[in-house]
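Worked Example 4.2. Consider the chain below.
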Amino acid sequence: MNLSLPEVLPAEFAESLARAAPRLGSFAKEVIWYPSVSSTSDAAAVLAERGAAEGLVVAANAQTAGRGRFGRGWASPAAAGLYVSVVLRPEADVVPMLTIAAGVAVAEGIQEATGLRCELKWPNDVYVGTRKVAGILAEASTTTADVSGIRYVVLGFGINVMPASYPPEVTVRATSLEDELGREVDRALVLAECLLALSRRYSDLGQGRSADVIAEWRTRAATTLGRRIRLEAAGTQLEGIAENIDETGALVVQTASGVLRVTSGEVQWV
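Applying the procedure from the previous section yields the following structure tokens:
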């Protein structure tokens, strides 16, 4: 991927991040801004390959090929959302919990910036009621087929901030912060608070406080735990009751044949 030249970070974002800087730690010491990019995660991965330091943030006003889990597209209309990726260089034992921690952090950041309470669906989809407002994708680069050889992780998140024209299949299941609140939302403040929350939760994982992350995730997922799900993984379909997550972030599902730990796969809540 050949990167186009970035532009100067818009003033409102620069000012908001400058105010948050004393609490951000290694996060956002460098922020790369694109008016439009194919994918912030692809750009971040290129920069990570070139040796970018942990905490580098790539953000864009629009994406032309944003993506979510399972290769699905992520609608990224100009100026309507936050499209952000962060370069992380975690220890291997932290990696399994990153998506759980990121879901918690984005939900916390949104609430801190706007007052809007968000809920979570496993592993890290951020909802308001029955509609999705944000999504998260963590992509790791490894030195070997074994994940113990982690080189870096690109953690991307997209937040629908303003009402926009989305594809029909997105419109029926998505919402935006402004739709839910009925007022304007400061994108720059949302970005700063999400990065602050991500910095805190990442620190929790690195310092052995993953139980705190799990406890907050369970609180925000209370309306989805105990519900029946349909799971597709490795070409197999199963149904069961989503009971909890365990200490590694795996979804614990009660099926007709016993308890199943789910670490990957697509879950539908039925």
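The chain has two domains: 11-220, 228-269. The longest strand covers residues 131-142. Compare this with Example 4.1 before moving on.
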